[in-house]
Amino acid sequence: MLNAMKNLPQKTITIIALALISVLCLVSYFNYSHKQEMYEKFSSRLPDGFFNQDDPTFWRVAIKVSEQKIKDIETSGYKQLEQKKMERMGINITVTDELISEEYKQTKKELNFARKELKRLTEK
To answer: What angle do CA 80, 84, 89 make, to 5 degrees?
Structure first.
């Protein structure tokens, strides 16, 4: 690989290096923006006073809130089964399975993210 690089003109090597640096910058930016987006989601759900994303307590509370939200979604899923039974009996109720399923998946992703952040902060 290095021998092949020696045969390339300096201009080509410079272009390749700049392209690699650009890719690294983009990856870093998207990783940072994803973290900021998740932090903003969590901070909007947490009680007042929890605002420092570098504090492990923030992520512990975020995990508890997410776990509770998952329990609530699972409970509402059971309620939907009851609603479907009522629909079969002729009672008309609107059920949004797809929305609840998507919310459940998103909450699971957020919970996993919060656990990773807590682990990262406590391992320092």
So the answer is: 145
